[in-house]
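To: structure desk
From: M.T.
Subject: fold request, one chain
Message: Could you run this one when you get a chance? Sequence is below, nothing fancy, just the single chain.
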Amino acid sequence: MNRIPVFVTACLLLLPSALVAQTPIADAKKAVSAEVLKFEEHVVTLSNPFFEGRVPGSNGMEVAKDYMEFWFKQYGLVPSFSDEKGNANGSWRQPFPLGGKVQVSAEAMQVGDRKLIAAQDFLALPIGGSGKVDAPLVFCGYGIRTGPDGFSNLPGDVDLDGKIAVVFSHEPMDDAGKSQWATARRDWSRRRLTRFKASALGRVGAKGLIVIPAPGVSDPEAGILDRGRATRVRSDAIPVMHVTAAVGKEILKDSGKSAMDLRKMSDAGEAMLPLQTKVSISATVELERTMAENVAGTIPGRGALKDEIVIIGAHLDHLGMGYFGSRGGSGKLHPGADDNATGAAAVIMLAERLAAHYKSLPPDQPARSIVCVGWSAEESGLNGSRFYVNNPIGKIEDHALCINFDMIGRVEGKRLKFAGTTSGTGMEAWLEPIIKGSDLELQTSSRMSGGSDHMSFMQKQVPYLFSINDLHADYHTPRDTSAKINCVDGVKVVDLYESVGKIISTLPEKPKWVGRSRR
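Reply: Done. Structure tokens follow.
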């Protein structure tokens, strides 16, 4: 039998009874409904770091698709897509090509007589190109051509033809190791990005680039070897190597200056120093084609309306490590709690509610098929929804309505955008009592509202409804975490669209596209 150690028991006895009794999180959860807890559970799960920011092509995104599929199965939905053999309702996934992912398939680096170990001493970066270079080294500060107040590490007449450039990471810093170019919104400017440095140095003749972590930088991740991400291979790109601080010290040892001295020179725009260390680098960078997948389950319709389709969707993907579209800088996990784990949670919960509702309908009640879907690759250009509307599971003209959620977890002051109410004939009339009965302050508009997956349906003249909360400072940053989600009002959004789903599913006549001509 397991026994609690005596010293643990003694410590518990010494705690104030009031402190032992305090369980604020548990008490708070007792005060909300089971539906609020369910919404929270989905959001917390999908925005967990384990899911790697749900970027297409990552293991985390694969698990996120499995997660959504699991719940569709639990609620009795059927697969929405045909399988590889053409069997209808044979697959939960709709694969589509998504450009590619640049991979480093081979890399090598030697400093003096020592062969370095990849992933331990250095990494070749996919933003660079392929090639083998054995050439003299030139230290070039931060490798920044132009900056504020006329800053430059590269003189106008610089010529690096046939040389390997050596630079520090980041950008000019103060004595605390923070950027001199920081703003109220950004700790570092875009000039720190290695891809810009590689491009600038390549244009002045450099045949390769070595990046050393800047000494004294306040960024705790500065010394971590990280490949980053690239989506295309440029024919004019030079090989780029990221090395550890220890390797950097070895490369700079014959300069006659310490790394910090060199950083101070770089901070002041004074750089350009030949190095005597012998270095060779080589890299093979290739494009590996990426496939993404929409995941969807169907609540089958019945009777005369069964071939008409209602889409209830939200994009499941996000930015990964801020590989693109980040407002907070790449290299850090972007959890995407509001954007768009909240929308995915709404789709999952509506799948459960509407599947149960269909079971309660009279057997002879005609009803449309409802397709609940998690779109992929929305963040990189609405790719998943665009592929779907060009390859729909039924005729696109048989799609009665597209419902789309994109960020519904940070509702403030009860305000929620409720767009598309005039996109189809008759919609205003049957939506009016739903709007009046909602606890939310719904902001309707006659203007066509794009920027998310419903736009793909708009372009095919399918009526739509779209909801999003006000944009916030954490949008597309690592700060978009589950702890900030307003789950109570998130469930009110689900309640609102449950009412919409029940009406549109059995409405005798589907709305006809109205578009921009209507008020």
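Reply (cont.): The longest strand covers residues 279-299. Let me know if you need anything else for the meeting.
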